[in-house]
């Protein structure tokens, strides 16, 4: 559910359309709040999102807590594919303090240092798709994996 969309289609209608297929095929539903951070990305544009400013971590935390109260077990803080700026460690820490579920962070994570900071701040999973899509080296992926090892308690 794209929680910060201004279009109800992305908040509940698409889910209602897909629910019968989830049931029919016996798929496990993964209740996930998708939160677009910032503006100007494809996810922001296509999803009609009211982007959460990078410097407003309490807004992201409020959305994450609302998602938890609605029964969502996952929150995805998404800066957008190929984002110029990544979700800040401060935002991840602030969300982590309130949200007890599985926290995913993506967009703009291009190096091991950034990945380590975000993981240490409380992210359970990182999405680094653009790095790989644009011909990223396995060496860089290996560096990121090594950097985040041991950041979770």
Secondary-structure element series: HEHHEHEHEHH
What is the strand content?
Answer: 5-15%
Structural category: alpha/beta
* Cα gyration radius (Å): 16 Å
Relative helix content: 40-55%
Largest sheet: 4 strands, parallel
Mean pLDDT: 92
Q: What are the low-pLDDT stretches, counting only 5+ consecutive residues below 50?
A: none
Describe this structure in words.
By secondary structure, the chain is α/β, with parallel strands linked by helices. Helices cover 46% and strands 12% of the residues. Strand 2, helix 4 and strand 3 form a beta-alpha-beta unit. The protein is globular, with a radius of gyration of 16 Å. The two termini are 29 Å apart.
Give a quick rundown of the structure:
This protein is of the alpha/beta class and 153 residues long. Helices cover 46% and strands 12% of the residues.
Helices and strands in order, then pairings?
Layout: H1 8-24, E1 32-36, H2 42-46, H3 57-69, E2 74-78, H4 89-98, E3 102-106, H5 112-121, E4 125-127, H6 129-133, H7 138-148
Parallel strand pairs: 1-2, 2-3, 3-4
Helix pairs in contact: 3-4, 4-5, 5-7
Which keywords apply here?
single chain, 153 residues, 46% helix, four-stranded parallel beta sheet, alpha/beta
């Amino acid at each position: 559910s794209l929680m910060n969309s201004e279009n109800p289609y992305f908040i509940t209608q698409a889910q209602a359309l897909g629910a019968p297929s989830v049931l029919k095929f016996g798929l496990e539903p993964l209740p996930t709040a998708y939160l677009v951070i910032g503006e100007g990305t494809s996810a922001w544009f296509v999803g009609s999102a009211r982007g959460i400013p990078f410097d407003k971590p309490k807004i992201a935390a409020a959305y994450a807590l609302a998602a938890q109260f609605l029964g969502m077990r996952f929150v995805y803080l998404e800066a957008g594919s190929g984002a110029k700026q990544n979700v800040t460690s401060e935002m991840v820490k602030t969300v982590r303090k309130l949200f007890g579920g599985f926290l995913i962070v993506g967009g703009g994570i291009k190096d091991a240092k950034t990945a380590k900071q975000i993981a240490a701040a409380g992210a359970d999973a990182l999405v680094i798709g653009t790095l790989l899509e644009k011909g990223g080296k396995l060496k860089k992926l290996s560096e990121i994996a090594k950097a985040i090892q041991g950041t979770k308690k």
